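U., I forgot to send this yesterday:
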Amino acid sequence: MVFDDYEICLYRSEFFPLVIDLLQYLLGSDENNNRSYFKWKYDENPYTESPLGIVTLFEGKVVGFRGYFATRFQIKGKNDKIISLCPGDTCVHPDHRRKGLSVIMGNRASEEYTGKYPFFLNLSSTKISLPGYLRMRFLPLNSKTYLTKCSMAGLVKYLFNAKKRFDQIDPKIKFGIFDDIIVSRQPRPKEMHVLIERQENSADKITLYQDENFFRWRYANKHNKYIFLYRKINEVVAGYIVVRVSPNNRRGYIVDYAQEDETSIERILKFIIKARCFDVLSIYHFSLIDTIKHQVQDLGFKNVSLFRAIERRVNGELPLLIRPVKHNYSESDFFVEGLDLREIKNWHIKGICSDDA
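Result:
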């Protein structure tokens, strides 16, 4: 495809060094870090045979890239091989911006991947990128809202340290065994998968497919910092929570969780709160099952607070976005196994579903 003096084409392995060079304008100047991140996210993705993305060429040079992060979903008992595409890592060279290249690459992706994947799901839009997605006919699925626990002192500390960045987790967070709680830097793929299979059945909902391979790959993302907390009952892991740590080490995002009883997640949350691991602790609000929602609210997590008001003022209330991959989609393309993709009630979305988690 040719647009003005630009060629818009599918990503190929020969473009790898040129794309890495371009991504410095998005990811920073650490080339080795950008290489390892790209290889983890796209080359090692277990749901595709090769990296998915669109490239813009100008005089033989890569001046634009839009990557697509494949994620596997399931509807239990009906279909466990629903591969969605999450748009991510979109970058245009500063000399070629304000020409609509991002949207053009997005439309090209829709043309190329029609018939291969059912839908795009974007959980990481920004105030800058949102208008482009709306032009590409993405539809809001739900507001990306959090339940958040934060004291006034915690809010002050978080805001005071907002611009700081640390590569390592704050040393005040202690790892080890504390009674029935294990705090670790590592996932336990087999035990976590067992809990996912045993937890409350989410029949007739679109849920993330989490087998052992998923856990081994997903948490190898070196761009993010994770803490894994497990609760043991009679020497068996009965529940877990995964917390993604913010760059400034002050905020924890609960991105993944499972339990085979009705008390383990609450017990782990009480441990995190008592240990004062974070000034701010957040979890997606819109997809929690009632049991967990009541527990976190009883522990002081709120959707309406001074912290949330400040967050809305700074970031806005950004939506989750959905659209069929099919370039010229129709009403029927929004349905998978009879479920309407536009209805949040048909989803169980955790933070780890997002490409930036």
